[in-house]
Amino acid sequence: MVRGKYVLAVLLVMLMSGISLFGCTRVSKQTSQSSIDVKSKYFSSEKVMPKARRARVTFRVDVGSFKGAKKVRMWLPYPVSNKHQAITNVGISGNYANSGIYSDGKLKNMMLYTEWTNPQVVPDISFSFDVKRSEIIKKDFPDSEETSIDPDIKDYLMPSGLVSTDGAVKETAEKIAEGKTSALAKSEAVYDYLVENYKRDDTVKGCGQGDVCGLLNSKKGKCADIHSVYVALSRSVGVPAREIFGIRIPKESEGDMTKAYHCIAEFYMPGYGWVPVDASDVLKLMLKENLKLDDPKVKDARSYFFGTQTANYVEFGTGRDITLNPPQEAGKLNYFMYPYVEVDGKALDYLSQKDFKYTVIYKEL
C-alpha cells in the first residue's frame, strides 16, 4: 500500500513539472517568455515631454511628358495617422480622370493613385493635409529582453533585392555583433559601427539607392544608403529591422521642403517594440560642420538619435521591392517615397525633375 502511494506521488510530480510519460515535453509558459539581460549606453529613464510640430503640407505635381500618351498614371505616398502623427483635413484636387486611395496590402503602405486617359492638357494634382507630429522617445529600455519574436515581425528578418543578409554582409555583421546576445546590444553595435566608419556623400542623388553590397566597400552615401546597411547588418544577426521613408518639416515657419525627403531606420526589441535610429543625421552633422567623433555636438547627436526621432519627421511607409496598388507596369519599385509616374507603362525619373515636376511646401499651424 505504501509503495502504491509512492508511485502515485511520483506520477503527480512528473505531471506537475510538465514531464510526459510518452516522451513529449510540454513547454511551460515560463520558458516561452524567457528573457536575457540587456544594457545600453544610450539608456535614459528621464521623463521628457515630447516636442510637437503642426503644419499644413502640400504636394503639387505636373507631368510635362504627356503629349501623345494614351494613359498617364501617378502614385503619391499617402501618410496616415499613427501613435506619433495625426493626419487631418486632407484635400485633393486636379484634372485627373480617376483617383483613389489604396493600400499595398502586406506592408500597409498607403498611396493616392490618379490617372489620366488621353490627356490633352498637362496632368496635374494638388494633395494637401494637416499634420501634428510628436517626437518619438524610446530610450527607457527594460532590464531584460524577451527571446521570442512575433511571427509577423519575422518578415523584417528577410532580405530584399538590394538588401542582402548573407555573404559579406553577414560576415561583417557577425564581426560587429560578436559577443552580443540581445537585439538591443546588437543594434547598438551596428549603429556605432556606421557612425564610426561611414560618411555622408552629398554627391549622391536623392536619398540614395540603398545598394548594400556596394556600400559595404564605399562606406559612404545618404540616408537611404546608410539605413539600408543598418537594416541589412541587423537582419543578418537576427534583429528585425526596417527602413522608414518620409519627409521632414524644416525649422522655419513656412517654405519649400521639396528636398527634405528622408529615410530613417527602426529595429525591433522583443517585449519593448520598434525603436528609431538615425545614424545618417549624425554623419550629416559631422560633414556639415566638419566635426570629429569626439566633438561634444557629435556625442550629443549620437546619443539622441539612438532611440529618438524628431517631431519634424512625417512618416510615409516602409519596405523594398514595392508593388504599388493598382500595380505599376515597369517592375517593382526599389522603395516608395517620391511621387511615381508612368506614361503608357514607362516609368519617369522621379529625381531629375525633367519629365515631371513636383514641389512640396509647408506652413506652420
Structure write-up:
This protein has 365 residues and is an alpha+beta fold. The protein folds into 2 domains: 52-134 and 322-364, Immunoglobulin-like; 141-310, C8orf32 fold (Roll). Helices cover 23% and strands 31% of the residues. It has 8 helices and 20 strands. A 5-stranded antiparallel β-sheet has the order 4-7-2-20-13, with no helix packed on it. Helix 7 (279-288) packs antiparallel against helix 8 (296-304). Mean pLDDT is 90; it is low at 1-33.
How are the strands of the biggest sheet laid out side by side?
4-7-2-20-13
Tally of alpha and pi helices? 8
Q: SSE order in H/E notation?
A: HHEEEEEEEEEHHEHEHEEEEHHEEEEE
Using the alpha-carbon principal axes, give the shape.
globular
Number of separate strands: 20
Structural class: alpha+beta
Main pleated-sheet profile = 5 strands, antiparallel
Provide the fold topology.
Elements: H1 2-16, H2 29-32, E1 35-37, E2 52-63, E3 71-77, E4 85-94, E5 98-103, E6 110-117, E7 124-134, E8 136-137, E9 144-146, H3 167-176, H4 183-197, E10 199-200, H5 212-218, E11 220-221, H6 223-236, E12 241-248, E13 254-256, E14 261-269, E15 273-277, H7 279-288, H8 296-304, E16 308-309, E17 313-318, E18 340-343, E19 346-347, E20 356-364
Parallel strand pairs: 10-11
Antiparallel strand pairs: 1-9, 2-7, 2-20, 3-6, 3-18, 4-7, 5-6, 8-16, 12-14, 12-17, 13-20, 14-15, 18-19
Helix pairs in contact: 3-6, 4-6, 4-7, 7-8
